[in-house]
Amino acid sequence: MNKKLKGKKVLVYGLGGSGGAACKLLHHFGACVSVYDDDKKFRNLFCYVEEPLFQKYDLVVVSPGVKVIGNSLISGLRAKKTNIISEIDLGSIFSLGKLIAITGTNGKTTTCALLGKIFDEAGKKNFVCGNIGLPISSIALKTDKNSFVICETSNFQLELSRLFAPKIACVLNVQPDHLDRHESFEEYKRVKAKIFQNFKALKCAVVNLDDDGARDIAPQKKSLFYSFNPLKKGVCVKNGCIYSGKTRIISLDEIPLVGAKNISNVMAAINIALLCKIKVKFIRNAIISFVPPAHRLEFVTQKNGVTFINDSKSTNIACVKMALESLQCKNLILMLGGQNKGLNFDELFSLKPQIKKVICFGEAASEIDGVAKRYDYDSQSFATLKDATYFAKSIAQNGDAVLLSPGCTSFDEFASYAVRGQIFSELVRSEG
Question: Residue 131: which domain range?
């Protein structure tokens, strides 16, 4: 895309945080910006257009919140051969720093946050952005050639991406998710693989060798792996420590993060940091002092011998599985529910995980409850998270653990998984 935007007619489709950041960046370069959103609450904006297909645009920038499959406006723009890009395309082409993109069904935020801390520890200028909350378009003009741009990259951002070209691209794992948007796991994987679409710009692909889905989409060339099994090249676990080749990085006992999935995230961050020539002492110091983002296997409190854990960020079945594997608790009360994304909970219960009691809540409560009972689990359903949490508190006994790992989005009751996790924590700590 020609970077000369002055005087060009540009439509920004989708007015969330990413859309707003795209508008500001486009205005900076003198583009004539119009906006459109499927939510008509934005129609009072002076630059809002009611019928975008009646206009001609030099460029359309689409926010990640816009669903592509079945979207008549996107189809109409394509039929007119309009130049369409995603917001991460726009932000990345104006970013001067070395672009590091991290994607995966689970673990993106933790890995990006840890990598940012490693760069901070080493005194390297860096920007952690993308799906983690700060749009890449909002930091593009702050970057320089000596900085690093660590972009948490979701499928929603990649769906319409054409120009996004990271120097280092990392895939943590690929498991079924967002099937309500992508309609099939194959389509989900196809979009995930777009992180490698501009292969010539790629210096290295960092890939989880232990994950079948990640392995399936890895490039045959330029790939560097990490694994819990010994590797001659790459980062791996040997003798209770993480190694890169023959270099010992850190003991597993020194890592404050809980569970195997987080050890895997740590290995990904180490691989990327070493590729960026960060010294081992800085990597180790950052890992030891790292505080993980909230709502990810987060200890809430212990009451009367019962441990309460908030894993509200768990919005798919793969993440629930990882949580169960990480905790390995014999007396587990598992809270599942919210708004399902077209996922099949047979994939969880058919594995026969050790669960003392299943408590279901929200829009998907009856669906999940039915599946759990079909596999002979003791299960009960409730309309709301509040009712489910109070019930969990009433039945939990000394030695039990109550885990909120919903496997669903929060949008039936709450604006985000973070709000859901905060409410759960408050309910747990209350005297009710």
Answer: 91-288
Residue 394 has pLDDT above 60, yes or no: yes
Q: Are residues 229 and 363 in the same domain?
A: no
Q: HEC string of the chain?
A: CCCCCCCCEEEEECCCHHHHHHHHHHHHCCCEEEEECCCHHHCCCCCECCCHHHCCCCEEEECCCCCCCCCHHHHHHHHCCCCEEEHHHHHHHCCCCEEEEEECCCCHHHHHHHHHHHHHHCCCCEEEEECCCCCHHHHHHHCCCCCEEEEECCHHHHCCCCCCCCCEEEECCCCCCCHHHHCCHHHHHHHHHHHHCCHHHCCEEEEECCCHHHHHHCCCCCEEEEECCCCCCCEEEECCEEEECCEEEEEHHHCCCCCHHHHHHHHHHHHHHHHCCCCHHHHHHHHHCCCCCCCCCEEEEEECCEEEEECCCCCCHHHHHHHHHHHCCCCEEEEEECECCCCCCHHHHCCCCCCCEEEEECCCHHHHHHHHHHCCCCEEEECCHHHHHHHHHHHCCCCCEEEECCCCECCCCCCCHHHHHHHHHHHHHCCC
**Predicted local confidence at residue 397, as pLDDT:** 96
- One domain, residues 96 and 203: yes
| Percent with pLDDT over 70 in the chain | 99
Give pLDDT, residue 36. 96
CATH of the domain at 17: 3.40.50.720
| 78 shares its domain with 138 | no
Each residue of 40-88: pLDDT tens digit?
Answer: 888 888 899 999 999 999 999 999 999 999 999 999 999 999 999 999 9
Mean of pLDDT values over 87-98? 97
Kindly tell me if the per-residue pLDDT of 2 is higher than 70: no
How many domains does the chain divide into?
3
Task: Determine the average pLDDT of the residues in 341-358.
Answer: 95
**pLDDT for residue 360:** 98
**304 and 275 in a common domain:** no
